[in-house]
Every structure is written in structure tokens, then in C-alpha cells.
Amino acid sequence: MEVINRYITIKHHVDGAPQDSDFELKSSPLSLSLEPGSDEVIVKNLYVSIDPYQLNRMKSYSSSQESSAYAVAITPGEDIDAYGVGKVVASGNPKFDKGDIVSGLLKWGEFTVVKPGGMLNKLDPMGFPLSYHAGILAFSGLTAYAGLFEICKPKKGEKVFVSAALGSVGNLVGQFAKVFGCYVVGCAGSKEKVALLKEKLGFDDAFNYREETDLKSTLRRYFPDGIDIYFDNVGGDMQEAAVSNMNINGRIAVCGVISEYTDREKRAAPSMIDVVYKRIKIQGFLAGDYLNLFGDFLSTTCDHLRTGKIQPLEDISEGVESIPSALINLFRGQNIGKKIIKIAEQ
Amino acid sequence: MEVINRYITIKHHVDGAPQDSDFELKSSPLSLSLEPGSDEVIVKNLYVSIDPYQLNRMKSYSSSQESSAYAVAITPGEDIDAYGVGKVVASGNPKFDKGDIVSGLLKWGEFTVVKPGGMLNKLDPMGFPLSYHAGILAFSGLTAYAGLFEICKPKKGEKVFVSAALGSVGNLVGQFAKVFGCYVVGCAGSKEKVALLKEKLGFDDAFNYREETDLKSTLRRYFPDGIDIYFDNVGGDMQEAAVSNMNINGRIAVCGVISEYTDREKRAAPSMIDVVYKRIKIQGFLAGDYLNLFGDFLSTTCDHLRTGKIQPLEDISEGVESIPSALINLFRGQNIGKKIIKIAEQ
Ligand SMILES: NC(=O)c1ccc[n+]([C@@H]2O[C@H](COP(=O)([O-])OP(=O)(O)OC[C@H]3O[C@@H](n4cnc5c(N)ncnc54)[C@H](OP(=O)(O)O)[C@@H]3O)[C@@H](O)[C@H]2O)c1
Ligand SMILES: NC(=O)c1ccc[n+]([C@@H]2O[C@H](COP(=O)([O-])OP(=O)(O)OC[C@H]3O[C@@H](n4cnc5c(N)ncnc54)[C@H](OP(=O)(O)O)[C@@H]3O)[C@@H](O)[C@H]2O)c1
């Protein structure tokens, strides 16, 4: 059987904020039956993840493209890989059978042809919606878990600040930290988000950074006793303001710097005098280095979901054609929680 | 017996680069015999240490003044404490006897009256000149040792970059790293210093940063395979250039940022995209937190000095009146190795 596989690509490199005109929906015929002897797996994509780092892959150059196997440059015109959940429609690989639900590195498209060695695993949904396995129970969750517990090593009662706090990673950092026994304040870009943080997710406090003019004094207001841990999703001014409000032995997990992704000139210039005298640690990390924690992370998170200690927060759009606007909207703060595209029904 | 104790003070806060006119040599009478029942110790100062951080203490405000007991603000007109070596001339404290050689927190002056609870210890010179115990075998050495081994955790063969490499801390970082088996490049501010680094101290390579126009490409030239460890003494542009040349899992010990001490506006703005994707750690530290390592540090360093694996590098001026210019010259790169003032003969 042959289908028309529709997928998203970039028309050219994208060096500023992404726009509709940067993307193209392409289609090409795809045979769903494999050649005899093929060791490939054909996956029908069900859910794919939308993540800010994809923009760094789209740039004509970013040092990030050299530093991680997941972050390699995207070639204009070619299909784009992304984490997701799918269903096997044909398999020449003895580890997979037709009908298997799988997760791994799929494509921003309707189907993925996974070559041997590609990242693909059978998925046990454990009673949770499949979409969870593209977000909260996958890399977004692991990022929050590893960044908070391995990089920041919180102690009960410590004061934690999270930026992009209603985003996919941020909301979980805050929730994990609350369950662990920390005092947690988040920031986000709208009144509505602030209300959600406080009312739905149980953050101790939250503020809308767009309404603030002097972030340094804003943080002093929210943390009169200083910040012990800053989980940085945004970089730029917010990181500088956090550094100047850190306590002695403060830790900053630099998870991402989304405010710097769309603007090459933008840089955080944290006070290094503070870094020295307050013995601050500023540590970058990639979740992919912490796969050894995946088992722990998964069982902890599933427990918290079942007992209601953690709320899942998903923002799902439908159809491959909605991928570009979903990515674009991350940079406009128009997602609430994990942004996922539902490509097809199971 | 009464003497005239001469000591250095600042006339007013010092907010830019220090100048002669900021300082004053004061004198006041001091009785060298203690009142009956006094628990003080009177020390005749022999060697005192000259350190860049003193400038941060002299500022009208620096966040550093709040973050460490050693870094508290200096009040204009008052005497200034500094690490040093001295000889007890009178003691009401049963732990010390007249004639004891001691080290601890003394004054930038000819005598120190140490109150109970002050930092003072009997010193066993172990056959080394007393001046060593104000520098290489004291905080300068511990700073290099703790920063390199505890913060950066080098592996044999790793590539190490040190700035202010002919300074008190920097020269030891480079020498420790060489003995440990790393590849070491240093930078300093003159041709003569570069020659000393390569010829006398055994650095693998060295350069004069004042002759370079694009530090990022300079570092690429000296580290074609990237930097694993950057021991940062200067901050600013050099830190930025180092970050962009770091390898994956690179570590930066932020020991000090001397280029930022004299200029409030000056800031390092390292690429946080590099920090994330290359999983870089930027860690501030203070040697005072690593007193638990002092025993290890001391025995290792003494061994290396005895076997000639490490060269001591001291820059000694004489007399209390030379203290201001000694401090001023640190910020002009006019010291070679540990800057110490010899206040008096034993
Ligand atoms: N290190 C890793 O392994 C790893 C893994 C996953 C993600 N990340 C990073 O983690 C961060 C969050 O990713 P995510 O997937 O959870 O995305 P997300 O937070 O769900 O979405 C991005 C959010 O960032 C905020 N934002 C966008 N532009 C901004 C700007 N200029 N200034 C401040 N905030 C801005 C927006 O929320 P508001 O403006 O409303 O706050 C937006 O909703 C990103 O930097 C990403 O690259 C790192
Ligand atoms: N964290 C701690 O516990 C601790 C303890 C001791 C010292 N420190 C810090 O370590 C650093 C070195 O201290 P040290 O005692 O060893 O001093 P030092 O290196 O002996 O003397 C300072 C040297 O810094 C260089 N320098 C001065 N101004 C500079 C500028 N604007 N840009 C670049 N380099 C400049 C000069 O050498 P060249 O210009 O010729 O290279 C000068 O000789 C300082 O930042 C200090 O605050 C930290």
C-alpha cells in the first residue's frame, strides 16, 4: 500500500523569530510495505513533541549544532526529526511488530521510516494517555527531574525560582520542587498564566515578568531571603536578576535560554563578582545525558500523577499542518504546558 | 614599652582603579605591654599579603562585602586586616608566648593587636622562608589547589587554560596542573611574563593577551582541540572567549574577575547557548571554604617545593609605606608572582 506522507520542512535557515513563511508542508509518496530483507520500521506518527531547541537547529549557524547529536543542523527542504509516539505499520526489524506502540525519534510528519540504530522503543503506556509519553513522561519530564535533582540538588525548605514556569519543563520543575518540600515561585508572560501557576499548580507565588520593569527588585520582592535555586529556561535579563538575588552556595541549572534563541545579540551578563563571592554554580545540562535516571524518574512521576500530587499540563493541536504555528507560538508564549501535536488517531 | 605603630588606611571609598592619593600612612602610639588580665596578643608583623580582593572591600558598595566574613567593607580611616606572618611580642592568651612565630589575619601595618577569636595560629615554617607562609603555603596556594582540584576535577591529559597566569594564584594553578599531567596554557600581560611562563614555570604555551585583538580566535589557536578547564582570574572578555572555546563538559572555576573590580560596568556575557549545549559548569568559589583541604594542600605543596617540581614565585617589597603602590600595581599587572610586603626583620 502506498500513502502520501505529509511532513514539515524549513524553506531556508531561520535566524530570528520563526514565522509561517519559513515553513513548508511537503508531501511525498511512501510505500507502507517494506522491501524483502529490509531492516527498517515504518511508524505511523501519533503524537510529536514541539520544542524550542528545534529553532537552534534551523539556524544557519549555532554552536549548539556541534555539541549534541540531538541538536544537529536541519537542512532546508529535508524532513525534521522530533521525539514522539507512534504505531508500527510495518517492520523488518525483529524487535518490532506491526501494531506495536513505540516512542522515539520520529519526524514532524505523518510517517517515519526508522533505520536500524534509530532511537525507537516499544512503549508501555502504563494506563496513561499516549500524549503523556511525548511530554511529561518523556524528555520534558526527564529534563525537569534531572535538572532539579541532579544539577540543583535541592534541600527541603530551599527557595526555588523557575522561569517559563508554565511551560513544559518549567511547570514540572515547580511541581517536583513543591512535592519535594521547597518554596517555589515561578514567572510567566501573562496574568492568566500567573493565576494557573498559583491556583492550579500550587506554586507558592508567581508573577508576570512582562509587567515588571526592574527584574532585580522584582525578585527581591518575591525572595526577601534570597534564591537558593534558579531553574533557568530563559537566560538574558532574568538570569542576571536571579544571580544578583542568589544566596550563598546558590545553584543555577541552565536548562535553556529561550530569550536568546531568537536574538543572537542577546546575552546574559550575570555579575561574576556575585558568582565568586556567593560561590554560585551556573551549570548547563542536557537531559539526554541522564537516561540512567529514566527509570527513577518514570516511576516517581507516574506515582505522583496517580496520587494527584502532580498535574499534567498539555497543550495539544491537531494535524501535521499545525506544527509550524505550534513552534512559532512557543516563542510568543502562546502555549500552556507541554506543546504536542496529535498527528493521527491510534 | 611604647612604639609608634604605622599602618595604612584609605582616605575614602575607592570605586575605580586605586591610586596613591586614595591611601594614607597613619601612625599611632601603641603600648607593647598588655594590661594585667588582658587576653589579647600583640604581634609584630613580618610579612603581609597583598591581594586584589582588598579593592572590593574598599568600594562604597559591592555585593561581595555581604557575602563573606573575609570580604567585609573597609571603613575609611581605620586599619585594614590582611593575611600575614608575624612574631608575638606580648601575649595575654595562654596559647601564645612571646617570640612565637604566628600566621593569621594581621593588619596592613607594623603591629597587630589580635583579640580573642581572631584568626591566629602558631606557625611551623618547616624549613621554608617565612614569606612562603603568607603566599604559596597560605591562601594563594590553597586557592589554586582547591580551585583546580575540587572545582575543576582535572583528568590527566586535559587541556587547561589559566588567566593572570603569572600572578600569585595563576602561576600555581598552572604548575599544579602540569605536575598532575595536564596540558597548560596561560596568558599574562607582557612579553617578559610570557617568557617566564614557558621557560621558568614549564607551561606548555603562553601568550600576551594585550597583543591580541580577537581573544576568541586567539584561544582557538592555542587550543585547537578545545579547552577542558578554564581557571578564571580575570572575567570579562577572556571568560567569554574561553566559554566559546570550551569542550563538552568543560569546567570554569571563577576564582576572581580582576578586570571587573576596577570597572563596575564591565561584565562577562558568556554564551549561555554554549553553556547549555556543551554542559559547561561555571563555578565561583572562595578558598576559605576549603580549609578542610589545608593539610593535604600543605604536604603536597611542600613536597613539590622540596623536589623542585614547583617553583616558588614571590614579588617582595619592603616597608609598610610600600603597601599602597603594591596594591595599585596588581591592577596594572606590575607584580610577578605573589605580592608580599616585608614589614620587618624577624
Ligand atoms: N537542557 C535540556 O535538555 C532541555 C530539554 C528541553 C527543553 N529545554 C529548554 O527549556 C526551556 C523550556 O522549554 P520547554 O520545552 O519547556 O518550552 P515551553 O516552556 O513549554 O515554551 C516556551 C516558553 O518560553 C517562554 N518564552 C518564550 N520566549 C520568551 C522570551 N523571549 N523571554 C522569556 N520567556 C519566553 C514562553 O512562556 P512565557 O513567556 O509566558 O513565560 C513560552 O511558553 C527552553 O529554553 C528549552 O530550550 C532544555
Ligand atoms: N576565590 C578566592 O578564594 C580567591 C583567593 C585569592 C585570589 N582570588 C582572585 O584570583 C585572582 C588573582 O589573584 P592573585 O592574588 O593571584 O593576584 P595576581 O594574579 O598576583 O595579581 C593580579 C594580576 O591580574 C592581572 N590583571 C590585572 N588587571 C587586569 C585586567 N584588567 N585584565 C586582565 N588581567 C589583569 C595582572 O597580570 P597580567 O595583566 O600581567 O596578566 C596582575 O598581575 C583575582 O581575581 C583575585 O581576586 C580569589
From TrEMBL, chains A, B:
Segments forming domain Enoyl reductase (ER): 16-341
Key words of the record: Oxidoreductase
Keyword Glycoprotein: no
Entries under Pfam families matching the protein: ADH_N_2, ADH_zinc_N
Parts of the chain that traverse the membrane: none
Taxonomic superkingdom: Eukaryota
Listed Gene3D superfamilies: Medium-chain alcohol dehydrogenases, catalytic domain, NAD(P)-binding Rossmann-like Domain
GO molecular function: oxidoreductase activity, acting on the CH-CH group of donors, NAD or NADP as acceptor
Keyword Oxidoreductase part of the UniProt annotation: yes
Protein name: Common plant regulatory factor 1-like
Organism of provenance: Hibiscus syriacus (Rose of Sharon)
